[in-house]
Every structure is written in structure tokens, then in C-alpha cells.
Amino acid sequence: MGIRVPDNIATLTPYPPGKPLEELEREYGIKNSIKLASNENPLGASPLALEAIRNHLKNLRRYPDGSGYYLRTRLSQRLEVEESSIVLGNGSNEIIDLLIRTFVQPGEDVLMSEPTFLVYRLMTQAVGGRPVQVVQKAFAHDLEAMAEAFTPKTRLVFLDNPNNPSGTVIGRKEFETFIDRVPDDVLIVLDEAYIEFANPEQTITGLEYLSGSPPVISLRTFSKAYGLAGLRVGYGVMPPEVADYVNRVRQPFNVNSLAQVAALAALDDEQFLQETQKVVREGLAFLYKELAAMQIRTLPTQTNFFLMEIGYDGRQVYEAMLRRGVIVRAMNAYGLDNYIRISVGRPEENRRFLTALEEVLGELKTDSEGR
Ligand SMILES: *Cc1c(COP(=O)(O)O)cnc(C)c1O
């Protein structure tokens, strides 16, 4: 082919999504498989959101409200910020992409930690920017080392709080020490995809620092605690001046109308949110207890997922679990070769995971002893 591809695109490796259930069942000819790989909501979606979708179906021939008026208004009341501070996205992933496309030119730097959500790095590379990654300390963002890593070319810093994949959070004191050291022309982005699962006494949210200097942007999503990952809706909260620039880059109808009405309804479904938090809390306690009994080291978490060290290559365990109809996440792409990450499921899914893991580890042990 004679086409020319820029180097930054030719060297990009796409984000590896968690394997879809349908694909697993097709490839392995199995049924009733379960997925604990993408930190999705164990309970499904809010019933109020589903009802809102059904009611809206008759309006599908219309373009969505490009300003997302009702959802932004409700969010602004809920979060006590100006409406003009809120930018809706096709998932919070789109806000990550928009921030990078709005503020980063080729050759400029975006600071992030390692390991962290892969999308920050991919989107940075896509615009010809330079991802600068600072290795974590004890499975948490090393904010001291990150403060040393700013260059005159740094435009953005991404911190997922809680962190994916470790589940750890940033404490108030360390965050405030960090902000004091961030240059004034850098935007700090806190990706709060799992904030609904975190203990507010142990961490901060960007909303508290929205109008500080430098300002802090919060990213939130309906994909996790609200169970609407398939609809793709999230948002960023940022100073209105920043939102104004982002809106120039944003496509006019980036959030579809079903996503808008469903998100609006889900926000008011306090009961669903509380049930989700309860199922996750109880599921975690159960899994931690059972895994401890199996001598498997687990990491504490402030999210609906956690890491465990399994003593074998994660990809091998992932494959063997697949054959038993259980999708987990290998962590090799994050540089954690002997770890897997799982999301908390419903009680029966958690038990199924444990049974499969026990079989798999037994099999791998026999294999390694037989050699
Ligand atoms: C799941 C996740 C998101 C959510 O992305 P959406 O596009 O809103 O579905 C964002 N950040 C992190 C760190 C995540 O794990």
C-alpha cells in the first residue's frame, strides 16, 4: 500500500477491551459464561434508566439535544457547580480524548503514572504527544516523583482516583502538596470513574479544587456504579473557560438521546446505587476471605475490582479460566505478569470464579510439578 501513516499511529497498539461474553461463547462453544473483566455493574442497569429508555424510543428519529440541557442541569444541581462547567461525553473516555485533542500539540507532554488506565497514553500518542509515565510506588500514584517530572512542555496530568488497576486512592495531604508543585499552565485531570465506591474520608474529589489554581478537572461516568456502560455516557467538570475550549472540539451530537434520558433517570435512582454499593462491599468481603483461605495475596481496594497475585503468568490463568467460562483480566499489558484483576460479581458469580480458580491453580501446579 502506498499510503503514508504517521509514526505515532503506526506504533500505536489498540486498547485491549475485556473479552465480550458472546465472543467467548462462540469461540469455545460454551454457555452461561460470566465476565468479571471490565468492572461492570454486577446488578445490571438501574430499572428507572431502563424505563426512561423505553419511554424515549418513539423519539429516536430526532437528533439528540446537543447541549444535553436536562442532564447538565440536573448534574449541576447535584454537584453544586455551574452548568457551563459540565461537558458530557460519549463515555468519560471521550472527555479524555477531547481534553487531549484540545490542549496537546504534537511534541507536547502528558504526565501519568504507570500502571494506569491505558487510554491516557493511547490518546496522547494519537495526537503525536509524548506520554510521560512515572512508575507507581506500592501500587499507588507516586505524586512526589510525578511532581519532579513536569517539563515546560507538560500540558496535562492524568490521575485516576481510585487507580485502575490497583484500586488505591490519593490522600488529601499528598494531593495538596502535589497541587502546590504543579505549574500554573498545566491542567490536572482526576479520573473518578470509581469514586462512588471509595471511602470519602480517605480521599478527595476534584470538585473541591475546581476553581483553584491550577484548576482540577473531574471525570465521572455512568458506566460503573450506574450500570450503563453499553450506552456510553460520562462527563467532565471543569472551569467554564476550559469547557468552552473543549466544546469547540466536541462533536455536536456526541451523546445519544437514549444515553441522556437514561443517565438522567439513573441519577435519581438512589436505591439502585445503594444496592450496587452493598453488593460490591459484601462481595469483596467474601472474596477476600475465601482467597486468603486459598493463600492468594489480594490487594485492598476502594473500587469494585481488585488485583491478586496468583503465582503464575496471568495470561495462562486467563486462558485456563476462559475454558471454564470465566472472563478475568490478565495484567501483562500493565506490566504485572503474575497478577489478575477481577471485578466483584453477584454472589453466585463470585462462587463460580473461586471454583474455577481453584481448579485452574490445581492444574497449573500439577503441570509445573510434572515437568
Ligand atoms: C471504566 C473506566 C472509565 C470509564 O470509561 P467510560 O468511557 O465512561 O465507560 C474511565 N476511567 C477508568 C480508569 C476506568 O477504569
Describe what you observe in this structure.
This protein has helices spanning 7-10, 21-28, 47-56, 69-79, 92-103, 118-126, 143-147, 172-181, 240-249, 257-267, 270-293, 314-323, 347-370, and strands at residues 34-35, 86-89, 109-114, 130-135, 154-160, 187-191, 216-221, 234-237, 297-298, 305-309, 326-327, 329-330, 339-343. It has 371 residues and is an alpha/beta fold. The protein folds into 2 domains: 47-266, Aspartate Aminotransferase, domain 2; 270-370, Aspartate Aminotransferase, domain 1 (Alpha-Beta Complex). A 7-stranded mixed β-sheet has the order 2-8-7-6-5-3-4, sandwiched between helices. The chain has a 4-stranded antiparallel β-sheet with strand order 9-10-13-12. Helix 3 runs antiparallel to helix 10 (257-267) and helix 5 (92-103) runs parallel beside helix 6. The model has no long low-confidence stretch (mean pLDDT 96). The chain binds pyridoxal-5'-phosphate. Pyridoxal-5'-phosphate (PLP) binds at residues 39, 91-93, 117, 160, 164, 191, 193, 221, 223-224, 229, 234.
Per-chain topology:
Elements: H1 7-10, H2 21-28, E1 34-35, H3 47-56, H4 69-79, E2 86-89, H5 92-103, E3 109-114, H6 118-126, E4 130-135, H7 143-147, E5 154-160, H8 172-181, E6 187-191, E7 216-221, E8 234-237, H9 240-249, H10 257-267, H11 270-293, E9 297-298, E10 305-309, H12 314-323, E11 326-327, E12 329-330, E13 339-343, H13 347-370
Helix pairs in contact: 3-10, 4-10, 5-6, 5-9, 11-13
The structure holds pyridoxal-5'-phosphate.
Pyridoxal-5'-phosphate binds at residues 39, 91-93, 117, 160, 164, 191, 193, 221, 223-224, 229, 234.
